[in-house]
Design a protein that fits this description.
It holds the Pfam family MST. The chain is mostly helical. The protein has 7 helices and no strands.
């Protein structure tokens, strides 16, 4: 008696975290999935779609993209390295107010997508550099006011938490724009930073 082998093995999408990996691979995989999910939820819209708000909230998909791009730079530049945020934020005329990125609807859709996509590429490199320098135990610059410093591990967990909170918001906002619902992108959808991984 012979058993026919199943040749239709599931091939995970490029943002799926590994089933069996190291701690760093799991954290980066979770972050990658959150980045891709949020980007897909906001994908393919014009300025009006990105600026759309529901009556009970001041959030928009464009605001979430800009906010999370800024959060990535803040966590991995200021908190990790102690460096001031300069570019691209100064050129974008960020005025250092807390709500700037949420309210800055004057950008074109292409500009908003570029702000987010470029932040993902930039901060993926920063994470890789930090891991090469000290691994997940690399001590961050920021402290709690009592001299206790988080490690890179904690900053990555916090960044994943930031994405998780706002990806739930993006679910509701996208459904309100055009009815798009669902947990995962279509099988043929790929975020721009995975289309052009060398950029």
């Amino acid at each position: 008696m012979t058993t026919e082998e199943n040749t239709d093995a599931w091939v995970p999408p490029p943002w799926e975290p590994p089933i069996d990996g190291t701690e760093a691979e799991h954290l980066l995989g979770a972050l990658g999935r959150m980045r891709a999910t949020l980007r897909w939820k906001a994908d393919g819209l014009d300025e009006a779609g990105l600026a759309h708000r529901i009556p009970s909230s001041s959030l928009s998909l464009g605001g979430l993209l800009r906010h999370l791009a800024l959060a990535e730079d803040y966590y991995l530049t200021t908190k990790l390295r102690g460096e001031e945020l300069v570019e691209p934020w100064k050129s974008l005329v960020h005025d250092d107010t807390d709500e700037w990125e949420f309210e800055a609807d004057h950008f074109t859709a292409a500009e908003t997508y570029a702000v987010f996509d470029e932040a993902v590429v930039r901060n993926t490199r920063r994470i890789e550099d930090a891991l090469a320098e000290g691994g997940l135990d690399l001590v961050a610059h920021v402290d709690d006011g009592n001299g206790n410093h988080p490690r890179l591990r904690r900053l990555l967990v916090d960044l994943i938490e930031e994405y998780s909170r706002h990806t739930g918001h993006a679910d509701l906002l996208r459904e309100a724009v055009d009815g798009r619902v669902g947990e995962d992108p279509d099988e043929d959808w790929v975020p721009t930073w995975l289309e052009n991984p060398s950029s």
